[in-house]
Amino acid sequence: MDNYSLVLFDLDGTLTDSHKLIFDSFNHVLRKYRSIEMTPEQILSYFGPTEEVCIKKMFGEEDFDAVWDDFLDYYRIHLDECTVFAGLKELLAELKSSGRLIGVFTAKGTSTTDLTLEYHGLKNLFDIVVTGSLVKNHKPDPEGVELALSRLNVLPENAVVVGDSPSDYKAAASAGTDFIAVLYGHSSTARFEDVKCKKAASVSELSAFLLSEGNGSWKR
Description:
This protein is α/β, with parallel strands linked by helices. It is 42% helix and 13% strand.
């Protein structure tokens, strides 16, 4: 095949510029319930599982329901501060019109994923959405990628994962798919210095990789 039949996107930092909203949502509940704030680096140290699991680790089980409700309320109310990277809606539409399958594989939980995709009018575009709530083993484990491949009946060699973190790359590599690193958000070339993959410095460059004729020439 000249073109990938499935393009699987990460969400935060790949499709949406949402990191600040995530950090602000955590700090909102940290201020309210613990009278503290955390740096982005401190918050990121909890990441891997979903936000629900992170909050349970931060606050414990006893306060979870109240904290989680407040977290979701803040996240929902401030979704206007989270944007889709310019050009990506057009890229998704072009991929769909060309007959490709497109999906999301994110470590986010289902609640925040649905809120984000629905707010930006993206949810109905995707053929599959795999969240951290749907897998037992989170990135960099390949379970989420493999679940998408299995449900859509796509071979690994006919799929590519697009993401902004080394854990996205490791999940793709372990599942046997190709990978494109995006550098237009909060990521940097240094994070992928030792990774042999395509690197998109802009959405237009990502579009060229995915839409240009004969892009099978740079597949593995």
